[in-house]
Amino acid sequence: xxxxxxxxxxxxxxxxxxxxxxxxxxxxxxxxxxxxxxxxxxxxxxxxxxxxxxxxxxxxxxxxxxxxxxxxxxxxxxxxxxxxxxxxxxxxxxxxxxxxxxxxxxxxxxxxxxxxxxxxxxxxxxxxxxxxxxxxxxxxxxxxxxxxxxxxxxxxxxxxxxxxxxxxxxxxxxxxxxxxxxxxxxxxxxxxxxxxxxxxxxxxxxxxxxxxxxxxxxxxxxxxxxxxxxxxxxxxxxxxxxxxxxxxxxxxxxxxxxxxxxxxxxxxxxxxxxxxxxxxxxxxxxxxxxxxxxxxxxxxxxxxxxxxxxxxxxxxxxxxxxxxxxxxxxxxxxxxxxxxxxxxxxxxxxxxxxxxx
Length: 357
What we know:
Layout: H1 5-14, H2 23-50, E1 61-64, H3 71-78, E2 84-85, H4 89-93, H5 101-104, H6 106-111, H7 133-137, H8 144-149, H9 154-163, H10 169-189, E3 194-198, H11 206-212, E4 217-222, H12 225-243, H13 253-272, E5 280-284, H14 285-290, H15 292-303, H16 308-321, H17 334-351
Parallel strand pairs: 1-3, 1-4, 2-3, 4-5
Helix pairs in contact: 2-10, 12-13, 12-17, 13-17, 15-16
């Protein structure tokens, strides 16, 4: 519903036939896009005028790592710092208009927010930090979320949205332009702060992000791959249930997940090796879960960030508020464990993980 008309039309054309049950939703999205277009155009011109001389803020800090590795928990903890700007829910839902039309409609839109995320029981409120991927999917054609919306082309959308497979220079340049535009808008909404951005897709794009923001910092968080596999399978199934506009029963999820993880980690290894030492830090989810404040302080020290002491009490409040949060639980079958070991064994051994009991 937050997409522009150009993106909607292109993605619909590229995604195969739409079943009759989804036609009303797609028609409504097109209508809403047309009605919003004057506001979207006005907001873009306004942003271009305000950012012509650049944004007076340090380059962003990016949290990367495969889905279900603890990126959201880390993001939510660090975003408690008053030093950081982050992506709020309304910016995700209305990326073209959240500074103007979105601000005017905020009381109505906030009532429409879900109580928690579809994939787990993490609460969502008007100030919950969000990743920017759904917003970027509403601004251009390269996103794995287009594969969630249109599963008949899931593999193509996924590979293009994560690895730029089959994409031409124009599509990639368009993605870069929209990513820059969206983050500039977030920076304008929360002026003077350093952007803190979380997106698993960026695990494969460190080199590109450094070209766009030469002094960007990166935090990589990893988690036991056996847990990541089961949790990622659950992640996609839950998103298909909530968001798919086509049948998803033909998607070979396990193959996509098993093949994507090593490709993402190999790209991360390659790109992160070229970063200055003070621009990259790596940690485990287990470390974050066991010692959240100490881990946050280590991140600040490793990346040369200031303001940890000022943020400590707010971070501690977040830790106390989430102390009773119950993670999803999974059964680890012998077949699943064998597949994970076969495809992801290098990283299991690299980080010293074992099969969960």
